[in-house]
């Protein structure tokens, strides 16, 4: 091909030179953008990689303070002591009155008087209700009249018997007449006895028109009102009276405990019993074990026991559900720790022991004995006066330093690289912000080729 000459060649040369000059003018802006991106990436690298390195250094020493802040783990603690531990049996019981009586009328008739108030404390022998006594008074008068007539007949027969005996001695009458009179006297004597019994029955019926309380106790709701006709066979009766003081509690214990309980009862010991409410929060009463049943329930493997309480304050109510705590023995002068201090794991049964001087913890294997819901008896491993952890043990490690409630926090320590002047960052921070080559701000530092920075406008 023929190359252009003349004006065409000049135009082509001018166009090529213009394109090259335009590329030279755009190139410094591109360099600036590249350097800004490099600077942003370097800053992000410093933030991401240097700070985790500081955290890693801190994690390597978790038990020591950093920047004046305490790193000790807060825990709850308690001292090992000596105490007596009661050996108790827990059970569920029901308050049962020692006596409950339904007062009923023993004669039929119209109720003319109700002599009690519902819920009243009545005494033994106090009047409860009264039936119309007039019919029974008339029956008594009739019985007494019949008795008087029979007694008069007997007296007449006795007089005739004495006369016949005198005549027989004189052979004035036949012996048979005397024997007949003797039999008549015997019959009249029996009649007088029957009439006397009828009188006593009428007196008793008249007395039964007054219904009295057979026991002392609390009267319930009345079952009949005045004016109603009461029958002796009424199922509900007049009122129910329940003995409130003293009162008993029935509860059951496993048959495995029967031998120990029975041995102490037969030896004459008094076994104390404590009652608590349904939630085992409030103590209701304290009493003693009275007796136990004469057989074991084969369906449940338990035996029933009865405890007696004075109940002077009427805190116990019949059929009330209670929690029973029967003390059958006492462990004397035992080394005890709180139940929350006993732990189980790979070392077996153990507790976290606190060194009083260094405030560090260590695992101490222990051998435990009898325990309750609150304390545990320690047979081996701890001594009175030792300090054990009771709260926060799940976060502890061997040799970790702990802080106890009431400990004063340590004073904050001075920074190892204090700033030279107010408002200036520490030297370590300034060194991390300074580039490794010791240059100025990245916007004015030298280029790798030794030329000026992109801000200077020259090509690298």
Mean pLDDT: 82
Q: Please mark out the parts with pLDDT under 50 across 5 or more consecutive residues, or reply none.
A: 1-24, 53-70, 414-460
Number of helices: 5
Major pleated sheet: 6 strands, antiparallel, barrel
Provide the succession of SSEs.
Answer: HEEEEEEEHHEEEEEHEEEEEEEEEEEH
Total strands: the figure is 23
**Approximately how much beta-strand content do the residues carry?**
25-35%
> What spatial order of strands do you see in the largest sheet?
3-12-15-14-13-16
Structural features, described:
By secondary structure, the protein is α+β, with helices and mostly antiparallel strands. The chain contains 5 helices and 23 strands. The strands form 5 sheets. Strands 3-12-15-14-13-16 form a 6-stranded antiparallel beta barrel. Strands 2, 17, 18, 19 and 22 form a 5-stranded antiparallel beta sheet that branches. It is elongated and about 175 Å long. The N terminus and C terminus are likely disordered.
């Amino acid at each position: 091909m023929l190359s252009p000459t003349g004006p065409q060649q000049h135009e082509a040369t001018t166009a090529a030179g213009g394109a090259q000059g335009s590329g030279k003018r755009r190139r410094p802006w591109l360099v600036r953008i590249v350097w800004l991106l490099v600077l942003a990436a370097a800053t992000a690298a410093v933030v991401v990689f240097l700070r985790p390195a500081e955290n890693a250094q801190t994690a390597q020493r978790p038990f020591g303070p950093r920047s004046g802040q305490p790193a000790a783990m807060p825990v709850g603690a308690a001292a090992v002591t000596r105490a007596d531990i009661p050996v108790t049996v827990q059970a569920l019981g029901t308050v049962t009155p020692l006596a409950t009586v339904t007062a009923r009328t023993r004669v039929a008739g119209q109720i003319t008087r109700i002599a009690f108030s519902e819920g009243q404390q009545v005494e033994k022998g106090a009047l409860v209700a009264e039936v119309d006594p007039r019919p029974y008074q008339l029956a008594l008068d009739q019985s007494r009249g019949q008795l008087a007539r029979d007694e008069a007949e007997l007296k007449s027969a006795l007089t005739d018997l004495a006369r016949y005996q005198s005549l027989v001695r004189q052979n004035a009458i036949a012996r048979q007449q005397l024997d007949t009179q003797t039999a008549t006297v015997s019959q009249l004597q029996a009649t007088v006895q029957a009439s006397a019994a009828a009188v006593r029955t009428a007196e008793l019926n008249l007395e039964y028109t007054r219904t009295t309380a057979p026991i002392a106790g609390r009267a319930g709701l009345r079952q009949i009102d005045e004016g109603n006709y009461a029958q002796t066979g009424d199922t509900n009766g007049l009122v129910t009276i329940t003995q409130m003081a003293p009162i008993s509690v029935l509860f059951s214990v496993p048959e495995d405990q029967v031998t120990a309980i029975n041995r102490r009862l037969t030896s004459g010991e008094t076994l104390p019993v404590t009652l608590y409410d349904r939630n085992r929060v409030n103590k209701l009463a304290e009493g003693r074990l009275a007796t136990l049943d004469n057989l074991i329930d084969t369906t449940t493997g338990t035996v029933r026991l009865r405890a007696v309480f004075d109940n002077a304050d009427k805190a116990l109510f019949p059929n009330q559900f209670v929690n029973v705590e029967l003390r059958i023995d006492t462990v004397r002068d035992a080394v005890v720790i709180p139940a929350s201090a006993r732990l189980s794991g790979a070392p077996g049964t153990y507790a976290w022991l606190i060194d009083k001087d260094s405030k560090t913890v260590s695992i101490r294997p222990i051998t435990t004995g009898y325990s309750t819901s609150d304390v545990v008896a320690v047979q081996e491993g701890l001594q009175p006066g030792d300090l054990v952890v009771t709260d926060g043990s799940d976060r502890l490690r061997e040799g970790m330093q702990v802080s106890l409630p009431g400990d004063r926090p340590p004073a904050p320590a001075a920074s190892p690289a204090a700033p030279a002047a107010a408002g200036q960052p520490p030297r370590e921070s300034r060194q991390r912000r300074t580039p490794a080559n010791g240059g100025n701000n990245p916007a004015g530092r030298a280029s790798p080729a030794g030329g000026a920075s992109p801000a200077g406008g020259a090509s690298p």
